[in-house]
Fold:
Amino acid sequence: MNPKHTAPPATMSLHEAAERLGVHYMTVYRYIRTGRLAAHQDGRQWRIRIEDVDGLKDRASAPTEVTTRRGGTASRLLERLIAGDEAGSWQVVESALASGADPTEVHLDLLAPALRELGQRWQQGQLSIADEHRASATAHRLVARLGPRFARPGRKRGTVLIGAVAGELHDLPVNLVADQLRGAGFSVIELGANTPASSFVTATTSASAFCVLLSVTGPGHDDAVRETVAALRRDTNASILVGGAAVPNESTAIDLGSDRWTGHNAREVVSTVTGLLEERAAERRRRPVP
Ligand code: B12
Structure:
């Protein structure tokens, strides 16, 4: 059979895709780096599936699924995270920043929805555990790169301690909330995932933190939360706040021994902690001078 008359190859090169889309090949390369177009590398050559090229054509006029107010697309970011492509993921972030998104919006309106979509796709069996781990590892690298943008010079408003309780391995929510609090002018001691109750106590005492945030994302950590709250109450004067995706409301947080709930999302966490600081200051003013 004449090869010219066989079915077209399942994949095509950068130049062939450019021709099919009617754009410059560097534009196609940018589509790949920013996650708009799926591709893989065969040696040093990019290969793109024809159906993905045609899909891009079709999508050009269709609305995207999860879009931030100012242009970044969580689904595009997720594709790059799953590919373990830090440079491509960062380009999605940079293009959101270039369109006017601030670092808080990148965290909460771009990265967090991408991570939630990751969870859904994993739960539906569309992604392997390796995919999920690679995406999480790449997300950590993005959070680290964005970190300096939350630094605020000058006097801090007070010290807050944050960590996930013993057995709780989700530390990305802790990382995001810690940076949001730094951006709001707090000094933050971040203990990350799987922190034993005794370590919360030691760190709270040595940092003189006025407030401790216990993070719970997955199920099955109630005993660890209660144990941590009890240890903190016994040995420190810090206010204790419990929150995270597994703590959906105030009554659950109070039932776990918390002084109050943090709120639904990181923006609410910042306003809850700010409110708490103001209340503590007002209380001190009311106290009679000895
Ligand atoms: C990445 C990930 C992992 C990674 C964690 C990587 C890491 N280092 O963080 C790994 C692979 C380790 C993991 C493990 C597991 N995971 Co997981 N994981 C996720 C995933 C995909 C993203 C988590 C994330 O970072 N989300 C983004 C954050 C920013 O969103 P958020 O949690 O809503 O955070 C906001 C709120 O919490 C809010 N907030 C409000 N108040 C407060 C207070 C505080 C203190 C903080 C910090 C935040 C906060 O602020 C945040 C920002 O707005 C989620 C999917 C999802 N829906 O989130 C599943 C998910 C949380 N995981 C899930 C499960 C089941 C597990 C495992 C049990 C799986 C298993 N069988 O092994 C284990 C548990 C391990 C353990 N012992 O903890 C389920 C939990 C379901 C449930 N609640 O019943 C989810 C929802 C996936 C799913 N759809 O089923 N996971």
Observations:
- The chain has a mean pLDDT of 89.
